[in-house]
Records
---
Amino acid sequence: MKKRYLISPGPTPVPEEVLLEMAKPMIHHRTSQFSAIFAECAEGLKKIFCTDQPVLMLASSGSGAMESAVTNVFRKGDKALVVNGGKFGERWGKICEAFGLEVVWINVEWGQAVSVDAVAEALKNNPDIAGVFVQGSETSTTVAHPIQQISELTKNTDTLLVVDGITAVGVYPMPMDEWGIDIMITGSQKALMLPPGLAFISLSEKAWKRSESCDIPHFYFDLKKERKNLAADTSAYTPAASLIIGLRVVLKMMLDEGLENVYKRHDTLARATRAGVEALGLKLLAPESPANSATGLFVPETVDGGKLVKDLRENYGVTFAGGQDHLKGKIIRIAHLGYFDSFDMVVAMASIEMGLLKFGHDVQMGAGVAAVEKIVNERY
Amino acid sequence: MKKRYLISPGPTPVPEEVLLEMAKPMIHHRTSQFSAIFAECAEGLKKIFCTDQPVLMLASSGSGAMESAVTNVFRKGDKALVVNGGKFGERWGKICEAFGLEVVWINVEWGQAVSVDAVAEALKNNPDIAGVFVQGSETSTTVAHPIQQISELTKNTDTLLVVDGITAVGVYPMPMDEWGIDIMITGSQKALMLPPGLAFISLSEKAWKRSESCDIPHFYFDLKKERKNLAADTSAYTPAASLIIGLRVVLKMMLDEGLENVYKRHDTLARATRAGVEALGLKLLAPESPANSATGLFVPETVDGGKLVKDLRENYGVTFAGGQDHLKGKIIRIAHLGYFDSFDMVVAMASIEMGLLKFGHDVQMGAGVAAVEKIVNERY
């Protein structure tokens, strides 16, 4: 007998009330019944994105929405400034290249946030940059990039700011309209507490205007067509209906809790987790600009992080994410975005303490948990 | 947003696979389809009770099965020796008195197990005792009574040994046939990991024989009638069908895990919990003969235990049981019977540490959790 705990930065746990709602008998998506749900979701999403623009719902993963941002707005040969500080920054560049954009890379050490000065300099050196592509939270390195400061550089220019907010939206404030973000994206299986399969994208007026001159072919990801359909409370193609039905409940839960409280909960859990890691004498992957979505930590050098993560998953029943590329086997990523509460972080830290002890690392049992407890106790 | 944790000694958490099974569309109970399930449950229950006798399934709480043991087997005026070391021992006596038996009480201090010598002496002083009534585990005091030793006193005599195993069956070995227990009872919402509503009872040959001379009126709880129906894979009255359907899955889970492993898991969690309590400098309610079903601890004298338990439930989302009668406000009972795993005990201990800190008790945060971690780590 083994209970299972999903503490990875996507998929994240789905609340029971959402699972039960999605388990109800299927309804048809071309009905007034479904349209009412669709319309309610559209309204809720605007609040989550902090925008007056429509937020489009796509039946795809977040990567599909990333692609749609490129193929619906830019032109072949456009210059894209891409912040590459992890797997997902790299993905922005790959998508841009796949559709004929010219990429100017800003390479950032994994675990660091991009420097605003580096972005400013690249924009100065390349006055014809059509768009800056960046992550709000770079999931692979648990870093938060300085989106608000970057938006100051782009908002009164012709350059579009394109933000992958897949592990940022719903975690900490990233008000699209107020900051002047031109394209913002998120996915269902992160802070939105749903299974994977839905992506969300919203465009500023400036981005919609730019899309008029777009020359990249696209069919399934047709944002203008989706916008037109959304105005009629429906979608261009068959929507992922059960996920939309779950989304209605998720949005109600988040708005009932209050966005400020949602952000505060994430902040508390993130601070607690970081304090726990440091109390165990372990090094944080992103000590300077950590995201509140997940916390990366370096496993001790004597421990094979890949084996530890596997053992925690298979024997202890606790699923974390490990590292990718050159961080493979070196880090653990503890998630705290979405449906997480204080005791999830207690379980996360306890399992890491137990796993480290099992793998021969001399760890002071309970020290990480104690640090977590002291901070999450603020909530009660 | 608050996640909820049920760490009380009944109801206990119900596994997801059981909940999903019970959520399937209702089937009719007078069908071959249901009879097959009923028969499978009857076979499984014999393994859990460690008996060759039929185990009857009653649509009632455990107290209903306790009543049926008295009303189906004994005679008005029979002398009952009742071990009264808590709320449930007291209940045996009350049931016996309600149906005209004469009760000889053995009063035991709450938190202590009955002394075998005291039972032997009472039997010696009252050679006409028709039955000894005792709990395997006295839930209100988290004590395990010495059933095997008591059975040595009754098994070659005319006296019946009647054991309320409601929080003992499926927690630690209590082999009915091998020990010579004459009547054994349990309920669904304890180690059997189901919602409340089902009770189980099995009678030895000696008890069935005695039931021939029973003169207490009964109708709904008619064990002979149930035995006859069970032989035909059905029940005398409408069975609690969804619970029986869930029971089939529960029994499969327990037998797949293996009874030895089930007992070992309970033992590990119980030892870990007791070590955690002691590491916090708190006193155990039953230090000498603790049951592996639940652990009672005294809250510090400066803390109102009633308020603490209420705050843990309402604010922290963690439900424990408090104390009853003269222990009201003085103790917390942490459950570990049924669907509990290592990290449930971590959560239990962390929440108690956090709650004690909040209530002004100077507790070394993490100390209890560390003690739990060290012991449960044996499992991995």
---
Amino acid sequence: MNVIETIKEMQQTIITLRASGNRIGFVPTMGYLHEGHLTLMRQARKENDILIVSIFVNPLQFGAGEDLGAYPRDFEQDCVKAQKEEVDLLFYPSVKEMYPSASSVKVMVTDRTDVLCGRARPGHFDGVATVLTKLFNIVMPDRVYFGLKDAQQVAVVDGLIHDFNFPIELVPVPTVREKDGLAKSSRNVYLSPLERDQAKELYQGLQLANNMIEEGERNPESIVQLVKGHIEKHCDGVIDYVEIRTYPELKPVETIVGKVILAIAVKFSSARLIDNLILEIV
Amino acid sequence: MNVIETIKEMQQTIITLRASGNRIGFVPTMGYLHEGHLTLMRQARKENDILIVSIFVNPLQFGAGEDLGAYPRDFEQDCVKAQKEEVDLLFYPSVKEMYPSASSVKVMVTDRTDVLCGRARPGHFDGVATVLTKLFNIVMPDRVYFGLKDAQQVAVVDGLIHDFNFPIELVPVPTVREKDGLAKSSRNVYLSPLERDQAKELYQGLQLANNMIEEGERNPESIVQLVKGHIEKHCDGVIDYVEIRTYPELKPVETIVGKVILAIAVKFSSARLIDNLILEIV
């Protein structure tokens, strides 16, 4: 595995690799790699000739109240993990390399952001879309991999790739879960033992909703109330939202039909958990 | 010469062309081709294996008061001219092909726009940068060609390519002039015979400034006053601006040193003319 720290070396390397016909899979990350990232890497490893991972904690996507400085980092461990997944190139630029001076352009995400998690994080997805535009131009991948646990991020990236015509295939990867159904997340370690036990009820709530929709329920409000009731009954956490929207457009839904997402966010004492279910109803 | 109307066909064609090692030169236009465009094509033809021209009147870069509908078009004549310049591929998408639905993303140009011509056209350069981001991803050129007569546009494109890390070389092409020095423009036909004669004084003003700077003048205000005086004396047109700024950053200049632009805009009765001089003072 080669670690590359400059944009110029990365672009030159990629141009050479592409010229000899290699298909390039790309997993962009902010590092502190966990099972979710490794799952993306494994799938990208299988589907491409070259596997590239980037590690860059992007200041642009952190808000004023969000602590960029406290974001966990462990580059040495990340290297060990990436090597084990047979990553070919690890792109690890500094902030100065990515943003050498005030930028004269930025990407504004004008849709899909003022809902779900985006509501509480104005500007967050502009920062995500801006750094991805740069990374796409630096890594020039054929395929890019994102986890569906962050379904709104996948929706925003889908819009970015589609509306800007990036010649890139977006591969959304299903959420990896613990045995009891809890979506894997680096934040799970912040849960108390009682909260950790209760946290499985987010998944249980999604399953209840899934069953009810399979049985024919098409009223989003009934589903939302069912899930809210279940979580409130079984969890001490506070519900941030339970919403049903079209996917990936994230528009409101009056009747459950077509491709929809049921998305949940619940605040526990030291961790805010999210989960979702994406369904296609014909 | 092949005319391609869909994004998909264009991208597939380019991927094949690039795979066999072709270097691609790109001249984006809004059509109604004139000598300025043809000069760009000739240079691109010389420097690349494949020459691609796009014709697309981009609605995004027209403001509310600007008449998008009245923008001149002549696709048949454009085809004849492009063929003569040995263009390989002409990309000619419809508005619906480029903007099939409301876009979820746009490029915002946050610098270099609230000066010179940008001052009077809020949002204009956002539209330019957004469509170019799309065109760059569709055409995937090695080099892109722009005329230096629209020096502010070149500055914005320079920022777009540099700050978003597009793997593209920007080639700014010097302004093509009539025998008396008037910068060629499709707008020159709107000048009355008297105005056409006076219009050469824009270039004369730039030359006077050039001489004065060569003789050692370093005060921008003195140069601006000289040029304004010259134009006011010799033209019936009304000066919109005469400004000296750094290039391509377009920051104010206190002393003439480094790379600077002297830019002029003058309104005649039916045409607003622009011209500029870019100098590098060590």
